[in-house]
Amino acid sequence: MQASESVEVLADRAAAEGRFPEAVAQLERLSAERPDDQGVWLKLSAMLRATGQLEAALSAIDRSLALSPLDFSALLARAFLLEKMGQVGADQAFTFAIAQAPDEEQLSPAIRKALAHARSRASTYWLEMQQKLCRLLPPDLDGAGARRAERLIGNVTRQTKPFVQQPTHFSYPELPTIEVHDRERFHGLEAIEAATADIQREFDALVASRGAELVPYIQYPDQVPLRQWEALNRNKAWSALHLLKNGERVGANADLCPRTMELLASLDQPDVPGASPNALFSLLAPRTRIPPHTGVANTRLVCHLPLIVPPRCGFRVGATELEWEVGRCFVFDDTIEHEAWNDSDALRVVLIFDLWVPDLTSADRAVARAVIVGSGGMGTEAL
């Protein structure tokens, strides 16, 4: 056994027997011999703390972290040390440790308990920070400004997280990342909403018709690498009655919905051969959840007009959770992660259609159209 190894054995034995000052002496000698050994500094810090030498223990743990800045054990030990010392940085130190925590299955019961304490302290810290920052906001913020400010504070205090556009195929540069868009930017939505009862009647007639083409919303060949749709692929738990599909009119359904088609014709829908416009009735069966996913192209947005909404239905895009309200449209960016659920015992029905992103110029639209068509419209079968 080498000398440094025998010193470490002696230090470990002394620590196990509660002879902490002796363990400190051995570990200080060992740290001089092996200054780049992160584990030695971690042990030394623990023994210094056990002997009440808190400042020295903090210096030793900082040496340990200088060698391995993301070490969970060292980060957690530093947070508890700062807490014991009554220092204001303890709460933030707990958040740093939490960020590096491994799966709890890998942790001992004692460490799990310590981690639970860390999460409690961090939660209190971020809540107090959120309240403090909210008090500092200008009092005259308008609705949109207040919403953005609150989201900024939510991101800073870990209550929310930033979400970005993640189109599966077509990512047009320099477009804004907005989860839910301002309704005022889209002509025709008020007319659609005013005709909700007409649209509902046409849907009812369509469903009752023998000629209606009701298909699974998701239809991919088995070999396509889209594991997120495995449970819903070709599953009528999430079904669609297409009126417009990839730019083509679905006559069997559209013929029975003349008022709906008239209203859709007044909207600024994308006109991309083989890809858009799209419009459909989306039927989500009871006890069905649509997993988090992202759309194909950030050049278009998606609008929902809820028609039948039982209780316990919901929708999330990014960090924004919305409740469907019958007859009330909302427009969202489907290239930002979104999901939906129907936890009720009844059917949920929404009219869905796409819209051009209003920030695109006519030249931008021509470019997007050319690229999508030229690439064969890859992925556009998934509105």
Describe the structure.
- By secondary structure, the protein is an alpha+beta fold.
- The protein has two domains: 3-128, Alpha Horseshoe (Serine Threonine Protein Phosphatase 5, Tetratricopeptide repeat); 183-374, B-lactam Antibiotic, Isopenicillin N Synthase, Chain (Jelly Rolls), CATH 2.60.120.330.
- The chain is 43% helix and 15% strand.
- It has 13 helices and eleven strands.
- The strands form two sheets. Strands 1, 2, 3, 4, 6, 9 and 11 form a seven-stranded antiparallel sheet that branches. The chain has a four-stranded antiparallel sheet with strand order 5-10-7-8, with no helix packed on it.
- Strand 2 and strand 3 (248-249) form a beta hairpin.
- Helix 2 packs antiparallel against helix 3 (38-50).
- Keywords: Dioxygenase, Oxidoreductase, TPR repeat.
- TPR repeats lie at residues 38-71.
- This is Tetratricopeptide repeat protein.
- GO terms for molecular function: dioxygenase activity.
- One of its GO terms (cellular component) is membrane.
Feature tags:
Serine Threonine Protein Phosphatase 5, Tetratricopeptide repeat, 7-stranded antiparallel β-sheet, 13 helices, alpha+beta, Jelly Rolls, 11 strands, 2 domains, 383 residues
